[in-house]
Amino acid sequence: MIPAQFSYRRASTVDEALSLLGEYGDDAKLLAGGHSLLPLMKLRLATPEVLVDLGPLDELRYVRVEGDTVAIGALSRYHDLQQDETLRTHAPLVAHVAGVVGDQQVRHRGTIGGSLAHADAAADLPAAILASDGELVVRGPQGERRIPAAEFFLGPFTTPLEPDELVTEIRVPVSTGTGWGFEKFTRRAIDWAIVGVAVVGKSVGLINMGGTPLRATATEQALASGASVADAAALAAEGASPLDEPHASAAYRSHLARVLTARALEQAA
């Protein structure tokens, strides 16, 4: 299908991107990797009047350690994160998950900030950032603010971002040797996960188990109380609201959540 007509603006700095957002407001959409936005535009589920391309903003592509935090530029691409030695050393779950998103074409174009801002419950990176107790740095005309990942995903494709704000950085704690694990089940390697699980220590993030990326809080509470991996994993679907649709029933997704949580926790042990 063909998208509706739109104007195209290419930002050369973050300040210019913010200026364009301030000028066009709700009529504008940000283009990072484009793997989520462009299909929606082709289906005319998204019809922005102005597309603001963030591609030239190399200032938002980096990984660096700042004290006890790993700072990741929002436009860092999955492939670069997968290969980055700093990230592999200090936030290995994020590096690993970036390397299993989609296929090579997706990983060479998709960005971590774009994935988080899109807030798709079926995406891999939101669960990894949730399990890592990460936070997002957001910039707008009123300055910079930091939003914990646990408060960022408000509903299906819904976040606290204002129309004139953009995600500039993702911050996760430096790994101190805490174990981690990641499991997902897909029909094909390039597909969205039917269910996935990201674990850092005793923190568990779930993929595609509701309308938003979420934590397996019942499992986390059980682990904190000294429950075994098997007993804690059995609670992984508690409080979740998985979809019931042709690819997988809600009951099947709940079963997968329990099985994959047990495997990911065993990896992290």
TrEMBL record:
KW Flavoprotein (keyword) present: yes
Domain FAD-binding PCMH-type, first and last residues per copy: 1-177
Statement: the UniProt record of this protein carries the keyword Oxidoreductase: yes
PROSITE patterns: FAD_PCMH
SUPFAM superfamilies the UniProt entry points to: CO dehydrogenase flavoprotein C-terminal domain-like (SSF55447), FAD-binding/transporter-associated domain-like (SSF56176)
InterPro entries in alphabetical order: CO_DH_flav_C, CO_DH_flav_C_dom_sf, Diverse_Substr_Oxidored, FAD-bd_PCMH, FAD-bd_PCMH-like_sf, FAD-bd_PCMH_sub1, FAD-bd_PCMH_sub2, Mopterin_DH_FAD-bd
Record's protein name: Xanthine dehydrogenase family protein subunit M
Top-level taxonomy: Bacteria, Bacillati, Actinomycetota, Actinomycetes, Pseudonocardiales
